[in-house]
Design brief:
The chain is an alpha+beta fold and 240 residues long. It contains seven helices and 13 strands. Strand 8 and strand 9 form a beta hairpin. The chain is globular.
């Protein structure tokens, strides 16, 4: 994993419409982006990852294209934008809320070239191997959460995506631009990502820190009520 590292936003691909785009056209400083490296002819795992991601996002009250963006790209040599278009069409039927401008982009290399996909996979920390006897790729499950300015903030390496974890990961990647005040309060004062459970859980340290801040605030308020200036005079009144 390469948490905190910035992706090479100048990499060029072909989108599902056959247009040349850069990674920076999608990760463009506006919204967090969920990136799923896949290959479109994958017989099983890639489909499980995308299905699980969609099922989880369907339970999250955020809107693709408004609160976050989705990006899938193929790392397989020979897969072109026509496969991108077919895969996008299939998933928009399953997840129609992503059928908006910037909702879900599917990319491939120019004329099926995989050079830039290899570079992007390396930047994400996503490894894969081509298994020649089967003609398939051996690879892990991966969805990377990217900040609006292109930094990797979180990974989810599974085929099941709990809505709570997805929501908090999007809020975290959004750098304060996404989510309600309650989301931000929970993330920054109560919850932290737990690598052992691969999800967000209550952080004792954050709660203790928040409790300490609250205690100091309460003491300050109490002292303020005990020692307050007399209205119209320069002396201090001590109450008991």
């Amino acid at each position: 994993e390469r948490l905190g590292e910035k992706l090479p936003l100048d990499l060029t691909f072909i989108d599902e419409n056959g247009e040349s785009v850069t990674l920076g056209d999608v990760v463009n400083g506006e919204l967090p982006v969920l990136i799923a490296p896949v290959y479109y002819r994958c017989p099983q795992l890639c489909t499980l990852v995308l299905n699980g991601m969609v099922d989880g996002l369907d339970e999250v009250q955020f809107q693709p294209g408004k609160d976050y963006r989705l990006l899938s790209f193929t790392f397989a040599e020979g897969e072109d934008y026509e496969l991108s278009a077919a895969k996008r069409s299939a998933y928009l039927t399953r997840f129609p809320s992503a059928d908006v401008d910037g909702g879900w982009t599917f990319l491939a290399g120019a004329e099926g070239d995989d050079t830039n996909a290899k570079t992007l996979c390396s930047a994400i920390g996503f490894g894969y191997t081509y298994h020649e006897p089967s003609g398939e790729y051996i690879h892990p499950a991966c969805v990377a959460f990217i900040s609006p300015d292109g930094f990797i903030t979180r990974y989810m390496n599974d085929v099941a995506f709990p809505p709570k974890d997805l929501r908090l990961a999007i809020v975290e990647a959004g750098n304060g631009k996404v989510g309600s005040p309650l989301d931000k309060f929970l993330l920054f004062t109560c919850f932290a990502y737990n690598a052992d459970s691969a999800g967000y859980s209550v952080s004792v340290m954050k709660l203790m820190r928040s409790g300490g801040i609250l205690t100091v605030a309460c003491v300050a308020i109490a002292l303020g009520t005990q020692f307050r200036p007399r209205i119209g005079g320069g002396q201090t009144v001590v109450t008991s």
